[in-house]
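hi!! sorry for the late reply, been swamped w classes. u asked for the two structures so here they r. pasted raw, havent cleaned anything up. first the sequence of the first protein and right below it the tokens
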Amino acid sequence: MHSDVDARAIRLGEYIAHTGSTVRQTAAVFCISKSTVHKDVTERLPHIDSSLAAQTRHILDKNKAERHIRGGLATKQKYST
């Protein structure tokens, strides 16, 4: 039987795996802090469901690699006239 925290970690991992969303987006959807999302999916989830944790880690790594591109596009959009 999983605790509430374990269940939350599973829900967060499933959400990220299915949507490909970022930690920030996931935190907004679940109305929790980015720190909580990150801790749940990187520290707690591997002990609960290693397969889901691996999928989630892959997406988080991809999002991190693309972060500078999204930031550049946001800046470009902000200053374009």
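now the second protein. again sequence first, tokens right under
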Amino acid sequence: MAVAQKQPVRDFLLDLFNIAIKSVQAKMVLPAHLPLEPPIGKTLVLGAGKAAAAMAAAAQNTLDYPLTGLVITPAGHDCPLPDTRIKMLTAAHPIPDDRSVLAARTFLDMAGHCDPDDRLIFLGSGGGSSLLSLPVPGLSAIQKQEIIRHLLLSGASITQINMVRKHLSTVKGGRLTAACGTRDIHTFLISDVPGNDPAMIASGPTIADETTLSDAQNIIAKYKTPHQKVVEAILQNKANETPKPGTLAGQYTIIARAQDALEAATKLARKTGWQVECLGDRVEGEAFQIGKQHARLALDLKARNGRWLLLSGGELTVKVKNKNGAGGPNLEYLAGLALALNGEPGISALACDTDGIDGSKKNAGGFIGPDTLQSGVESGLNLRQHLKTNQTYRFFENLNDLIFTGPTLTNVNDFRAIAIES
């Protein structure tokens, strides 16, 4: 869990974040949903994402019939599995690597060898899209890496990126289910996607896809991705369309979402005497702009007197202008918030990614308070300039205002809390 040495209001915000993370841990949310009766045949467990290892451990600790399988997770997000019959691999994130290709091939092979009496349990969570990556014929792994990297740096939303991923993949967008030899398929998902569309979580390897080749074409054109001619040819080939709703077997359950984390934080805040205003779990947009908007909301709440907590979840994006910069969406959100508040007394905030990683560094996020801008000036740092050059990490690092949790083994996207005291 996160640790820091700060004044009481920041300790309170840290407590909120910790209870939010605890509420969406696999061991807390998965066991109640698992099928307790065994199938006639064997049970194959496949999983991909930042929570995949923790979900597999929870499944093994809950089910008393034999399980075999494979899960893949980013390095550092692994955990011990009770039974070695479920193997674990690690691969790169957010850009796929050779291990991602190997995992996708292996998943398709293992699912294809299921018999009709067997059962497939698929465990999906955020991060799964890059961990399972097998391009369609005509597209190389390197080309796909460059396309996804470009979209990530251009500020495309997770929904837009996953639409493209699904139509350039042989395993995503329901194709794993289409390749499976059994219809007894159970998918359990921890959602990092605003709106909780199961077909978007980990790009939905086992979930039918409503989006189309045309949707992917529009995104490629909008963001002017590399290899456009190659991609256009692929996206004009109807053989690369994903399976549509009503064509696939199986069932799914979303076992944790951002709203669950927000509700856990709300409960603790109200218990300790705070009034809570929650903006929901679907907040999207450019990070520093959303920070500016939330500053206005915080000032409005302050005018109403009392102690207020402004909560929000969802996923924010960053348009990367400096490819050598450091600092993810949560720090850019905090920078926009701090600049707009301009040292307003009585307002502090925390913003973190619930997977424990904000952007390219190892921090989960950070803090701001009424003294943030002045402390920066005294340290010879200009927050506005650091924001302009995507160097917010350096600013918050110098103020000792970063939050480090390490990988949390779950992922319901961003968690933001603004404490407002009149």
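hope this helps!! also noticed smth abt the second:
The radius of gyration is 22 Å.
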